[in-house]
Specification:
Blueprint: H1 8-23, H2 29-41, H3 45-61, H4 69-85, H5 89-103, H6 106-109, H7 116-119, H8 121-124, H9 126-129, H10 132-137, E1 156-162, H11 170-177, E2 182-188, H12 195-198, H13 202-207, H14 214-230, E3 233-237, H15 241-246, E4 255-260, E5 280-283, H16 286-295, E6 306-309, E7 330-332, H17 343-356, E8 361-363, E9 368-369
Parallel strand pairs: 1-2, 1-3, 3-4, 4-5, 5-6, 7-8
Antiparallel strand pairs: 8-9
Length: 403
């Protein structure tokens, strides 16, 4: 629809008015249409991005997924690309970071039963593949040597790396602590006094691949090199900040293995990561492998890591405990603090079960749910493992640094 003789300033005024009205109305489809129409017809790239980004941020602040989220991100990346072509690396990566933080905001991607990414994974992430800046940040930089084969005559040196979250590592670390042919070391980037301040900051992690932040790059190299020189294999838990941080440096002959669970696919981290420095990428389910490779088609290219699917290990033996007869009517809910756990579905299951037999109850690890029964008081089960459990044999203090 052509809009002749309307200045950018007037279109921006209309877009801001529509954004404000949209925020104050539950039935805002007309305002969303007007916002998108006026925003798309603004010719000045910076003004267009400012208008659309401000409108998207306003919606996210109110807990709503913006209809024009990809338009706003694409507009911001158009500004980033213009700056990148001019050689303004810092400004370009600042704009890129802004677009990434907006696109993968948890209100849109995590705190909902659906997300723009899961609804249309290839279409939603197209603006990143179209961006010269985003492509340059994630471009393969390779490594100086291929990963060395398993050593002969000595134990394999295994470095397990994470950033604060070791929830799924206990069985892995227990296995390899007891393995006669493996020497295990554990590195929590969040606990290490040298690495913790370096392993944060999206913008400087995106500047480094573009040739800026030389001093930061030297610090990262110096801090990580002793670990990589010691390890034959580095296993990085979560394909997120720790993995992106590790791929900032050449791993040399160390084999690098990443494990992706689920939430990482709904974040910006895989989009700023150099996968040419990763040897193996493990998915915990086939459907997450399919979704992630749709979001990141470069994982299917020639220089991509080997892809594997392997279920999370679960020790079911600890659930084999003496139980009262009433246990057969107890339904357990594992996790309740995130929408992805879908406690509403669990309550629906309970409702249907109790329609057949009122002895059924639901326990979430902290309290039990029995319609018509007052909560609290006697019989409330204790919550097991509150706060997460550090893998056995790992000290809570500073991890030992390599010699």
């Amino acid at each position: 629809m052509p809009l002749p003789r309307i200045s950018d300033e007037r279109l921006a005024t209309v877009a801001r008015w529509a954004s404000d009205r949209q925020a104050r109305s539950e039935r805002s489809s007309a305002m969303e249409w007007l916002l998108g129409l006026s925003g798309r017809h603004i010719q000045d790239a910076r003004l267009k991005a400012d208008v659309l980004v401000a409108a998207a941020e306003a919606q996210l602040t109110r807990g709503r997924a913006p209809r024009h989220l990809t338009d706003a991100c694409a507009a911001e990346l158009a500004c980033a690309d213009a700056l990148y072509r001019e050689g303004a690396t810092t400004a370009a990566t600042r704009s890129l970071s802004k677009a990434l933080l907006l696109a993968f905001h948890r209100v849109a991607q995590v705190d909902r039963l659906t997300s723009p990414l899961s609804d249309a994974p290839r279409e939603f992430t197209a603006f990143l593949r179209d961006s010269a800046t985003a492509r340059a940040v994630a471009a393969p930089r390779g490594r100086s040597a291929p990963a060395a084969p398993r050593p002969a005559g000595r134990a394999l040196r295994l470095l397990v790396v994470t950033h604060a979250n070791a929830n799924f590592l206990r069985l892995i670390t227990e296995r390899y602590e007891q393995h006669p042919d493996v020497e295990l070391r554990y590195l929590d980037l969040a606990s290490d006094p040298v690495l913790a301040p370096l392993a944060k900051g999206l913008q400087r992690m995106t500047e480094l691949p573009l040739g800026s932040r030389a001093a930061y790059g030297a610090e990262v190299e110096a801090a990580l090199r002793p670990y990589l020189d010691w390890a034959d294999t580095a296993f990085v838990e979560w394909c997120a900040g720790a993995a992106a941080f590790l791929t900032l440096v050449d791993p040399g002959t160390t084999r690098v293995v990443l494990r992706l669970h689920r939430y990482e696919t709904f974040t910006y981290w895989p989009h700023v990561m150099d996968f040419s420095r990763v040897d193996d990428l493990i998915f915990i389910s086939e459907h997450m492998r399919e979704l992630t490779t749709t979001v990141l088609p470069r994982l299917l290219e020639a220089d991509a890591p080997r892809l594997h699917t392997m279920d999370n290990a679960v020790d079911l033996g600890r659930f084999a405990r003496p139980k009262q007869a009433a246990a057969r009517f107890t339904v357990g809910l594992v996790g309740i603090g995130q929408i992805a756990k879908d406690p509403r579905w669990a309550l629906e299951v309970l409702r249907r079960l109790r329609a057949q037999d009122e002895r059924y109850r639901l326990v979430d690890g902290r309290r039990r749910y029995e319609p018509g029964v007052q909560r609290g008081g006697q019989g409330v089960p204790r919550r097991a493992g509150a706060g997460g459990r550090r893998p056995r044999g790992i000290r809570c203090g500073q991890p030992a640094r390599p010699e």
